[in-house]
Every structure is written in structure tokens, then in C-alpha cells.
């Protein structure tokens, strides 16, 4: 069977920490979408590590980590990450596997990402500039080079063809940066990639399922950044929701069991686009400061606001979430009063739905106030220790979104997590 851990907001919910926490219970941890735009933070032996493309189970010696076909992979970033992971004594050649179908990000994808953003001016997406959009465009446009193609003798010819096509597009954008250094790094990265385990991942994973092994699918980005269901066009270019597990790994829907959704106890967003509960005042600043809300990939300050139950309920619905992990609860420890958005005013009408035209209409969030717990919760290990005000906050969320919060994360550390149902 396959369980899934994915983000329910606009990313950075703490997926990496939660996957790392649950990984020992699984035989395989697999990434099914996204690429180096992701930044998943883990603490290993109290040292901070940010993973971009390697699944967050890599620090557990007995867990196989698989990069699925739904991912777009940058050989340059992967090589650097593998070096970091190796410095912790982990042999990636042993427990990292890559699907032959994984699409490769080439240097001109990154150049095109930049050129496209510049051309959008004030309407830019706020992309991480890692080449994600252009790489997925080449996938759906049927031009991409895939992991398995790197091993074929036609690779260099196909690379040159694709690069020439990109060059024509870059000329249209009047992009004239010299990217020859990127290319040198790229070919070094490709040589390194060729030394890793490449598999027909759909057979690999289905064979594991047939043997009764436990698989954990790890989402990148967040549901509100999904290409189809997110706040389009301010989204990423892949399906970040649970449906992406099927297409990204080649597993059938009935093989998916638990869908664990990760949400912060408040809300953040990095990059452009609608964010109804964003706070522009000192409360927003406080959330950013206490929560250290700066992008793990780009270092940009994250926009901060109260939890948005409309967006959260929507995300639970489209993902089929069976349980929720609420992270960064400790960030709210010192707040006297908390707010949850329980409806939107859209064009003067109250609504509990995410509108199609969310990027165009002005949404005024309506809030319900809650008493803060005003307690340092960071050392709590047992649900009995949690303040009743926090339990009330959680219970309100459960009822509103129709899925149970089963875990509360109360610090960035590996074991700072409290199970609300007894088993930790
Ligand atoms: P991801 O992209 O979803 O994996 O999340 P990020 O790693 O980008 O951002 C989450 C940040 O919050 C990281 O710096 C984590 O170390 C940190 N974090 C995760 N869970 C908690 C928590 O419960 N409390 C606090 N204070 N920090 C947390
Ligand atoms: P993790 O996995 C937060 C955002 C970017 C931008 C938009 C499109 O760490 O949660 P892209 O580079 O994909 O073209 O950017 O999506 N974005 C993320 N925001 N966390 C992420 O990943 C993100 N990956 C992309 O900021 O608004
Ligand atoms: Mg992140």
C-alpha cells in the first residue's frame, strides 16, 4: 500500500520534517512531482539540512528513496545535494533510485524561466527560477530529455536540438546572458547522474507493493500551488495533489491508503499571487520572525497570515485527506488572540468556497477569534500536556475541514511532534 504526505497550503508546511519523522515506518519514500523548486528542511543529528530533490527518507539507512517520473530533475542541484547527504555518511549509490521517466532540467530551462519572469513584469509568478515551468512545458510539448535518455547515444544530439529550440525562444525574449558555465556544470552533473541507480520505477514500485512493502509518497509544493486546482496562474507547473501520486509514480488509485495533509497552524506564501488572509501589520511580522519564515530555496521572506479554513477544506476535499498534521503550533505559543478565516466576502457576498477567479477578485476574509494558549509548548511530548485552548483550536479545525488533526508539531526538531491519538 501507498500512503501520501503532502502540503495543504502554498508550500513550506513542514513536509520534509514530517516525512523524515514517519520514514522509519516505510520501506520506500518516493517523490512524485516538483523539482529543485522544493526546499524541505530536516534536522539530522541537530544539523539543519535542506533537501530539494532527494526524498526526505534519505537519512534512514534502511529506506529506499525513489525520484519518480513525475519529477523534473536538475543534475547540477542533485549532485550538490548528494555531496551534502554523503557528508552524513549516507551512500546515495546504495539507497537512491531514479525513474528512467524523470524529466531532466537543462540549463536553457533555467534561462527561459528567468526570461519569462522578466517579460511578465509586475505580473511575474515569483518563480524560484529553477527552470520548473519550461521543463514541464517540454514534457507536455513532447520535447523533453528523460533520465533514461541520458544513457542513450542519441543524448548529445537531442540535447543540442533542444538547446537550439530554446535559443530561438531566448532570442525572442532578448535574453543574452552567457550560460556556458551552466553548461559545464550540467554535463558534470549528467556524468554523476549516470552513476546512480536508474529503474523502470513503475515496475520497481508495483513489485514492492506486491511484496507487501510500505511506500510513502512525498509531495513537494502545496495543494494551492497545484497547476489545475491552485491559484492559477500563480502556481507551479505540476499536480501537487494526491492524484499526482498516480501519474508521478505509476501506482493505481486504489493502492493509496492514507493521505496525510500537512498544514501550518497559520499560513504562509512565498512568491506572487492571491493570499486572502495575508497580514501586512505587526502580527504578520511577528509570525515571520517567530516562525523564521524565509524561503528554504530562495531565502525570500515568506508572506504570513492567519490560517485559512476555506482553502484548507478545499485542499482536504481535492486530496481526499484522511488525517492532518498541524505544524508550527509552537509559533503561536506567545499570541494572546488567534484568528481563523471561516468565510470569504467576494463582491459583497459571503462564500465558503475558493472562487475560480481568486486571482482577479478582491477577497475580504471573515475571521473567528480564538483565545491563544500563551504557553511554551515546545517540550511537550504527550497530548495530555497540550493546553485546552490548543485542543479547542484543533477541534474547530477538525469540524470545519472534515478531517482529523492527528499530530501537532511543536518545534523544528525531529522528535518535536505530539500524537493526539496516543501512538507516537
Ligand atoms: P517544507 O517545504 O514543507 O518541507 O517546509 P520548509 O522546510 O520549507 O519550511 C518549514 C520550516 O519550518 C523549516 O524551517 C522547518 O525546520 C520548520 N519547522 C517544521 N516544523 C516545525 C514546527 O513544528 N515548529 C517550528 N517552529 N518550526 C518547524
Ligand atoms: P516546498 O516543496 C513554497 C512557488 C514559487 C512561485 C510558484 C512557482 O518547499 O513546499 P516555480 O519555481 O515552481 O515555477 O514557482 O510556486 N513555489 C513554492 N513555494 N514552497 C515550495 O516548495 C515552492 N515551490 C514553488 O515561490 O510562487
Ligand atoms: Mg519548503
Give a short summary of the structure.
Helix content is 31%, strand content 21%. It has twelve helices and 20 strands.
Describe the structure.
The chain is an alpha/beta fold and 424 residues long. The protein folds into 3 domains: 2-102 and 197-259, 3-Layer(aba) Sandwich (Adenylosuccinate Synthetase, Chain A, domain 1), CATH 3.40.440.10; 103-193, Adenylosuccinate Synthetase, subunit A, domain 2 (Orthogonal Bundle); 263-419, Adenylosuccinate Synthetase, Chain A, domain 3 (Alpha-Beta Complex). Helix content is 31%, strand content 21%. The chain has 12 helices and 20 strands. It has helices spanning 15-22, 75-86, 92-95, 107-120, 132-140, 155-172, 180-194, 201-210, 243-249, 282-290, 309-319, 388-401, and strands at 2-7, 28-31, 40-44, 47-51, 64-67, 72-73, 96-99, 103-104, 197-199, 215-218, 256-264, 267-269, 303-305, 307-308, 323-327, 337-346, 349-351, 363-371, 405-409, 417-419. The strands form 5 sheets. A 10-stranded mixed sheet has the order 9-7-5-2-10-1-11-15-19-20, with helices on both faces. Strands 14, 16, 17 and 18 form a 4-stranded mixed sheet that branches. A hairpin with a 2-residue loop joins strand 3 and strand 4. Helix 2 (75-86) packs across helix 7 (180-194), helix 4 (107-120) packs across helix 5 (132-140) and helix 4 (107-120) runs parallel beside helix 6. The longest helix has 18 residues, at 155-172. It is globular and about 65 Å long. The model has no long low-confidence stretch (mean pLDDT 96). The structure holds guanosine-5'-diphosphate, 6-O-phosphoryl inosine monophosphate and magnesium ion.
Amino acid at each position: 500500500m501507498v500512503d501520501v504526505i503532502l502540503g495543504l497550503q502554498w508550500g513550506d508546511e513542514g513536509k520534509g520534517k514530517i516525512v523524515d519523522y514517519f520514514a522509519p515506518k516505510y520501506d520506500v519514500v518516493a517523490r512524485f512531482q516538483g523539482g529543485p523548486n522544493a526546499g524541505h528542511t530536516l534536522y539530522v543529528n541537530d544539523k539543519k539540512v535542506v533537501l530539494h530533490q532527494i526524498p526526505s527518507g534519505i537519512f534512514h539507512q534502511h529506506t529506499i528513496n525513489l525520484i519518480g517520473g513525475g519529477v523534473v530533475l536538475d543534475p547540477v542541484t542533485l549532485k550538490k545535494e548528494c555531496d551534502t547527504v554523503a557528508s552524513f555518511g549516507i551512500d546515495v549509490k546504495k539507497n537512491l533510485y531514479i525513474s528512467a521517466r524523470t524529466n531532466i532540467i537543462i540549463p536553457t530551462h533555467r534561462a527561459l524561466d528567468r526570461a519569462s519572469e522578466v517579460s511578465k513584469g509586475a505580473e511575474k509568478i515569483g518563480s524560484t527560477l529553477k527552470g520548473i515551468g519550461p521543463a514541464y512545458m517540454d514534457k507536455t510539448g513532447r520535447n523533453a530529455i528523460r533520465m533514461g535518455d541520458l544513457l542513450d547515444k542519441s543524448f548529445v544530439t537531442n540535447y543540442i536540438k533542444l538547446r537550439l529550440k530554446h535559443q530561438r525562444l531566448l532570442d525572442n525574449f532578448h535574453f543574452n546572458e552567457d550560460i556556458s558555465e551552466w553548461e559545464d556544470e550540467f554535463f558534470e552533473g549528467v556524468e554523476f547522474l549516470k552513476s546512480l541507480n536508474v529503474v523502470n520505477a513503475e515496475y520497481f514500485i508495483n513489485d514492492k507493493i506486491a511484496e507487501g512493502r510500505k511506500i510513502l509518497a512525498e509531495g513537494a509544493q502545496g495543494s494551492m500551488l497545484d497547476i489545475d486546482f491552485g491559484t492559477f496562474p500563480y502556481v507551479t507547473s505540476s499536480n501537487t495533489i494526491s492524484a499526482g501520486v498516480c501519474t508521478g509514480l505509476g501506482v493505481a488509485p486504489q493502492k493509496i491508503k492514507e493521505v496525510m495533509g500537512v498544514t501550518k497552524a497559520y499560513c504562509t506564501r512565498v512568491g506572487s499571487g492571491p493570499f486572502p488572509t495575508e497580514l501586512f501589520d505587526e502580527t504578520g511580522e511577528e509570525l515571520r520572525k517567530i516562525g523564521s519564515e524565509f524561503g528554504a530555496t530562495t531565502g525570500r521572506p515568506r508572506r504570513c497570515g492567519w490560517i485559512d479554513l476555506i482553502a484548507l477544506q478545499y485542499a482536504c476535499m481535492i486530496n481526499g485527506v484522511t488525517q492532518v498534521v498541524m505544524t508550527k503550533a509552537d509559533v503561536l505559543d506567545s499570541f494572546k488572540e488567534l484568528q481563523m478565516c471561516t468565510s470569504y466576502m467576494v463582491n459583497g457576498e459571503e462564500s465558503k468556497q475558493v472562487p475560480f477567479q481568486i486571482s482577479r477578485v478582491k477577497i475580504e476574509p471573515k475571521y473567528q477569534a480564538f483565545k491563544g494558549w500563551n504557553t511554551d509548548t515546545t517540550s511537550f511530548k504527550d497530548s495530555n500536556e497540550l493546553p485546552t485552548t490548543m485542543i479547542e483550536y484543533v477541534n474547530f479545525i477538525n469540524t470545519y475541514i472534515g478531517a482529523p488533526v492527528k499530530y501537532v508539531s511543536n518545534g523544528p526538531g525531529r522528535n518535536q511532534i505530539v500524537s493526539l491519538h496516543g501512538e507516537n
